[in-house]
Amino acid sequence: MERTTEAGFSTLSDLEEVASKRVLEHVWAYVQGGAGEERTLGANRSAFRQWTFRPRTLVDVSRIDTNISLLGTMVRAPLFVSPMAYQGQVHPVGEPAVARAARDAGILAVYSTLSSFSIEEITRNSGSVPPWFQLYLQPDFEVSRRLVERAEKAGCSALMLTVDTPVLGVRDRQAPGGFAIDSTVPIGNGSDVVPPSRSPMEQGKFYRLRSEAGSTWDILEELLSITRLPWVVKGILTGDDARTAVHHGAKAVLVSNHGGRQLDGAPATLHALPEVVDAVGSEVEVYLDGGVRRGLDILVALALGAKAVGVGRPILWALGAGGEEGVRRYLDLLKLELATSMALVGRTTIAEVDRSLVAKTDI
Ligand code: FNR
Ligand code: LAC
User: Fold this and answer.
1) Ligand closest in space to the Cα of 319
2) Of the bound ligands, which one is closest to the alpha carbon of residue 313?
3) Per-residue pLDDT of the chain in tens (363 residues, 90 and over written 9)
4) Does residue 294 have its Cβ closer than 6 Å to ligand 1?
């Protein structure tokens, strides 16, 4: 009961509502909003409801093992915190608190170029699972290079290049007057770091974007040449792009539509996953994010071929609802539901979670 009070919520079901009452209205709109009519945002979630489980019974489930390795690092569960900007806006304790909660849960967390605190400070609050750093390409490549060097020096063990954001999607909930991410919100990694541009500029007969929007796949090779760390490419939705990413040196791909915040009409990530797994799953690790809320969702995504899943908004809800204790509780509940669900479907290790576990339903 006491922990509930500290965390602000008691179950996975009441988390979002509790958070909605505690987070400032304009920040809430920023967190929740998707692009366009929010079709993709909704599809991410409803895709999970199209699958049911095929449980096996009277299996010895007296010991459940949720551990796996991600790019060579052992983690306590096949889940990670997806990179999200400006966590200090959601709660003043921001990313370092998320890092401590992830540390105590033994899971991986990825931090945005646009974190409210510096990557050095975040890394100092992390534990034996080193964080990963997510890069938004900067207009000046030297700034990208410095960020990569800092992340490596600070102890990050992998880098993630987000490729679905040459410009921000059209987000009506973030319309002028609301929380504009390219306004005055402080960026922990320094004042020379800029967020993706908000919209194209009309110039004569054309629309122009900033220089980094001109990047093509060669940029991945350039990024590989400036660090020893492996690169994960985030924002892949087709087998073709997955193959191209791997061809250019990616060590993993993250099937993501940015939580429905970029291209409205992009497929639900759960629908895009099998094509990507078929294309590159035997060569590199394939992850998924978008719509993962509960332990059961993790099982569905893993059954369809993901090696691990990223969790986005629920981390911010938990942070907004109860600061560090909120995130701690969310991660506890998520891990516990994963283990509980594994017992209920008769699978004792993550390796046993395969395609035979799920079936598509008509509802
Ligand atoms: C994001 N996401 C994101 N992605 C990224 O690569 N860099 C970033 O800085 C951010 N920032 C960000 C802020 C907020 C408020 C949200 C909600 C999301 C996308 C994120 O990494 C992830 O892809 C989605 O959040 C996953 O979907 P769910 O879990 O939110 O449904
Ligand atoms: C967003 C950017 C910052 O989704 O990634 O808001």
Assistant:
1) 1
2) 1
3) 445 568 999 999 999 999 999 999 989 999 999 999 999 999 999 999 999 999 999 999 999 999 999 999 999 999 999 999 999 999 999 999 999 999 999 999 999 999 999 999 999 999 999 999 999 999 999 999 999 999 999 999 999 999 999 999 999 888 665 555 656 788 999 999 999 998 999 999 999 999 999 999 999 999 999 999 999 999 999 999 999 999 999 999 999 999 999 999 999 999 999 999 999 999 999 999 999 999 999 999 999 999 999 999 999 999 999 999 999 999 999 999 999 999 999 999 999 999 999 999 976
4) no
The response to whether residue 114 sits with its C-beta less than 6 Å from ligand 2 reads yes
- pTM beyond 0.90: the answer is yes
- Assess whether the C-beta atom of 112 lies below 6 angstroms from ligand 1: yes
Please give the angle made by the CA atoms of 343, 46 and 86, to the nearest 5 degrees.
90
181 C-beta closer than 6 A to ligand 2:
yes
- Pocket perturbation via mutation, ligand 2, pick of 181, 182, 183, 194 by most ligand atoms within 8 A of CB: 181
Selection from 231, 256, 257, 262 nearest residue 246 by Cα: 231
Cβ proximity of 117 and 144 under 8 Å: no
d(CA 132, CA 204): 41
289 lines ligand 1 (CB under 6 A): yes
Q: Work out which ligand 1 atom sits closest to the CA atom of 162.
A: 6
Residues with a catalytic annotation lie at 258
Nearest to 105 by CA among 351, 327, 348: 327
Ligand 1 near 82 CB (within 6 A): yes
Q: Which residue in the block uniquely carries the two structure tokens 């629908």?
A: 271
Helices 313-345/25-32 angle, 10° precision:
50
CA 152 to chain centre: 20
- How many angstroms separate the alpha carbon of residue 196 from the centre of ligand 1? 13
d(CA 61, CA 344): 9
Angle at Cα 74 formed by Cα 250 and Cα 219, nearest 5°? 15
Which ligand is the nearest neighbour of the Cα of 84? 1
Token pair 């983690």 is found at 75
